């Protein structure tokens, strides 16, 4: 099943208590694609500048990521810089230079228009909707990520896009802000009235919670000895989640639960090393092993 993602492909500067990198390939669509490509073919829609060379594109080499929708524009690639605090949960954004992203108008190649599974990574909700407008027919599943900037800045546009979305994947503070409810279950009910029928709340080291109709499912964050860099955890989670669902080809209560586990597992790999380093070395077998371990970790007899 084809899976389409639209979002940032970036250069990141990252500082954590464990080190720093000045310029490494990142971006929400990059983390998502790498994570999802372990499960299915990914159609990537995004833009890079003329400073994004073959050496940088090499992160996608040998993977099932179709770059026909990765536009090249004159100018610099989107640049993001962040610094994590000692607890690794809080981060300060030091720079967001949109560069070629400022003029980005996503254009789907003909071969991408029949994509059945769609992930709208965190970008302007108007652009997210313009991608949906270019998709032929009704996709099987549309999932969306967003952030406080759009919730505060363009709430009406975001609400229009949410009407066409089945799964919303955001963190707990965004959930509260969007719904104006502190309690997450009440927040979910408020969000269901906006369009999505499934809410996935990403809670960092506290794992993730899915509310789907009346049912709630929680997964822990996989316990790790070492976390070096949380960048991209949410996007890798989304890649594992959507990649698994697209490969399963069916959406029901159980496949959604398994998608939560695959999401958590991919997120856990992403944070073990800086930037994309761990995802680039990851083997499919390691994912399966960690999912099995996850099962052991979370079952009990009654
Ligand atoms: P996450 O840690 O899941 O929030 O994702 C971090 C990735 O998102 C980094 O690789 C950044 O390049 C990218 N990113 C950060 N801010 C933005 C933004 N405003 N729009 C699009 N992508 C962004």
What attributes does this structure have?
alpha/beta; binds adenosine monophosphate; four-stranded mixed sheet; nine-stranded mixed sheet; 302 residues
Characterize this entry briefly.
36% of the residues lie in helices and 25% in strands.
Explain what you see.
The protein is built from 11 helices and 13 strands. With 302 residues, it is α/β, with parallel strands linked by helices. The strands form 2 sheets. The protein has a 9-stranded mixed beta sheet, with helices on both faces. The protein has a 4-stranded mixed beta sheet with strand order 3-2-6-7. A hairpin with a 5-residue loop joins strand 11 and strand 12. Helix 3 packs parallel to helix 5 and helix 9 packs across helix 11. The termini are far apart. The model has no long low-confidence stretch (mean pLDDT 97). The structure holds adenosine monophosphate. Adenosine monophosphate (AMP) binds next to strand 2 and helix 8.
User: What is the radius of gyration computed over CA atoms, rounded to a whole number of angstroms?
Assistant: 18 Å
Strand elements, count: 13
- Range of helix content: 25-40%
Bound ligands, each once: adenosine monophosphate
Strand content: 25-35%
User: Which sequence of strands runs across the widest sheet?
Assistant: 5-4-1-8-9-10-11-12-13
Q: Stretches where pLDDT falls below 50 for ≥5 residues?
A: none
Distance between the termini: 38 Å
Give the overall shape: globular
Kindly report the average pLDDT value. Answer: 97
Q: How are helices and strands ordered from N to C?
A: EEEHEHEEEEHEHHEHHEEEHHHH
